[in-house]
Amino acid sequence: MELGAEENIVGASPSPPQQTVSPPLPIDSEELVEEQARAFEVEAAESAVSRKTTTRSDRVGEKFMESIGNSPISEAQIIAWLGKIEKEESLAPPTLSVKCSLLLRYLRLRKNIVMPQARIVSVLKNKNARYHPQKAEPVTVEMVISYVRSLGDDDAFIAKKLYLLIKSFSAGRASEIDELSISDVSFAEKGLCVKILREKTDKTGEETPVFVPQDAENPVSDPVRLFSRYKELVPPDACRLFLYFDPVTKRYKNMPIGKNSLAKIITEAGISCGVKGRITSHSTRRGAATSFVRHGGSTEGLMHVGGWRSANVARRYVDSSLETSRRTAAVLVAPTDHVPGSLPQTLGGTTNGTYVLQGCTNCTVNFGTMPQKQG
């Protein structure tokens, strides 16, 4: 037998197999495994939700396809079918809107057909007698300025003040204002220039410049002074405009304020100013339109301010409450020597008996009974 050769001896116990022990994972590898596990859990949860939604849309879509038979799919058929099941199942407007979304999802995924959801929902709302739109209560420009001044001269509130002033003077949507960058704001003569992308109505992709006027007499609410101070407190590499304040360092950190927290800023301002009812991020948009018209702005100017294409849509944003009518009348008609029981002789600055309402567009003023001439 050669040296070094192994012998197979009958009855001898075989040598136990060698076990390989994996070296311990480094710390960063363990964190990577945990991160991958969390990502897998999130993906599994999202996949489960997606499957559930797809199953619901399939049920709604199959009912629709069964009802129309071999007829070609059209927008009119979708509206008619949704109106039919609304009556048969006594669906509330929110539930009907969900059914519409599920049906359009089915058509998009299974039939490769894309339908205009916004137009279909609009038609369904107009046909539904039980639908009552819930308008956000307006938070006007005057209210915003009053609230901003009430916050005092504290660096911790600069981002909040700038957000309220920019959103109010621009009449901007939350999607247009919440994600503004610092580079979108620049100093202009007697104010700030803010570049806003009206993404919902302007399909050209061009930014619209919006002017936020200076308030030199009140440094606490002066946007020029606030923005100048703000740039000193934000990190040099900061991109987003509205950032969280660090009470420890007394500076702003590179952490953008979320949309829910920004919406709460408007809610706080509205409640502080005594606004009753529903306050949302749209309240400043309605408030800006109301303030603009209250001060004699034209419909064309209102459309430009808020980025509305339709005059009818723009007018719907103006508050038509009795209080607004009273304030508008106070702006239009401000007599200084009015005698009870007679008509004022100084409307619009004229004294020759001619009544002129300056800066008024589409206004209705009821004077009551005209006095009879004597003799």
Describe this structure in words.
With 375 residues, the protein is mainly alpha-helical. The protein has 13 helices and 5 strands. The strands form 2 sheets. Strands 1-2-3 form a 3-stranded antiparallel β-sheet, with helices on one face. The radius of gyration is 32 Å and the shape is globular. It starts with 26 loop residues before the first helix and ends in a 43-residue tail after the last helix. The model is unreliable at 1-12, 331-361 and 366-375 (pLDDT under 50).
Looking at this protein, list some descriptive labels:
mainly alpha; disordered C terminus; hpI Integrase, Chain A; single chain; 375 residues
Q: Count the E strands.
A: 5
Which CATH architecture of the largest domain?
Orthogonal Bundle
Broad structural category: mainly alpha
Name of the level-1 CATH class of the largest domain: Mainly Alpha
Mean pLDDT over the residues = 76
From the N-terminal CA to the C-terminal CA, the straight-line distance is: 152 Å
Which sheet architecture does the biggest sheet show?
Answer: 3 strands, antiparallel
Q: What fraction of residues sit in β-strands?
A: 5-15%
The best one-word shape is globular
Report the order of strands and helices: HHHHHHHEEEHEEHHHHH
Count helical runs: 13
Oligomer designation: single chain
Residue stretches low in confidence (pLDDT < 50, at least 5 long) are 1-12, 331-361, 366-375
Count the domains. 3
Rg calc = 32 Å
- Strand arrangement across the biggest beta sheet: 1-2-3
Residue share in helix: 40-55%
Q: CATH H-level name of the largest domain... which superfamily?
A: Intergrase catalytic core
- CATH topology-level name of the largest domain: hpI Integrase, Chain A
